[in-house]
Design goal:
Low-confidence stretches: 232-240
Helix content: 40-55%
Largest sheet: 4 strands, mixed
Number of strands: 8
Mean pLDDT: 90
Radius of gyration: 18 Å
Order of helices and strands: EEHHEEEHHHHEHHEHHE
Bound molecules: zinc ion
Length: 241
């Protein structure tokens, strides 16, 4: 991780992570947490465990929030307050409707990304204003449905939280191991075209193993370069933020 200028204006400097750094840190943090809480590392990660992960580092987690005034499709909000732990709100409809549990899981994992990787910047900035040039303002980040599992790199904070969402629910070593086994079973050794039937079967397998939606599994497999949106052999879009 390195600090670079924050052109969004939220902070004077902001962290830049390589995807592998987020993968390693998330897998290590989540596995250590599961072992401590349940005595074993098991996936899918229980939905309750995602609550506890947030509660460990937030002032409050409200899973029954009315976010209708925050804008269309906003399903999660993290409020950063200088000098304090963050506040997290999740749209009530996700918690109240069992058929939306996968959406609840991805939203919780996404907001944990903000809590773990971004909220400390409001503490550090406050403690050491000279390091970053100025104290940050209180800021709320409003997370829309379309950005929960994967956002464009235009907004670094949403991109990182979207990446963390996949890295928490589908840790890279475990997800890659399942994908490798599947590729071996069909005698394939390279990335699969995301539009192929084999890709659809792999997505189904990952979605089941980690209790996520097919869309979340698809995005994760693309980010881990196991599926390709380009024709095989033409290379990959380069991630990073
Ligand atoms: Zn977000």
């Amino acid at each position: 991780m390195k600090y670079i200028r924050d052109i969004s204006g939220r902070l004077s400097m902001r962290p830049h992570f390589e995807p592998i750094e987020l993968d390693r840190e998330c897998e290590q943090l989540v596995c250590a947490f599961l072992k401590q809480k349940y005595g074993e590392i098991r996936f899918p990660i229980p939905t309750d465990a995602l609550d506890v992960l947030i509660e460990q580092d937030a002032q409050d987690l409200d899973k029954y929030a009315d976010l209708s005034a925050e804008g269309d499709d906003v399903e999660g909000v993290t409020q950063f307050v200088p000098g304090q732990k963050p506040l997290v709100k999740i749209a009530a409809r996700l918690s109240e409707n069992p058929s939306l549990e996968n959406r609840l899981r991805t939203t919780l994992a996404h907001e944990w990304g903000h809590v773990k990787f971004h909220a400390p910047l409001w503490l550090v900035d406050t403690a050491s204003p000279n390091l970053f040039g100025r104290r940050p303002d209180a800021t709320s980040i409003k997370c829309k449905r379309g950005n929960i599992v994967g956002a464009s790199e235009y907004d670094w904070m949403e991109w990182q939280a979207g990446y963390v969402c996949g890295a928490v629910l589908m840790p890279h070593k475990r997800a890659k191991a399942i994908a490798k086994e599947y590729l071996g079973s069909i005698r394939a050794n390279g990335p699969l075209d995301v539009k192929s039937q084999a890709a659809a079967d792999l997505i189904k397998c990952i979605a089941k193993a980690f209790q996520v939606s097919a869309e979340a599994a698809r995005v994760r497999m693309i980010k881990l370069r196991i599926l390709s949106e380009l024709r095989p052999g033409l290379g990959f879009p380069q991630p990073g933020a």
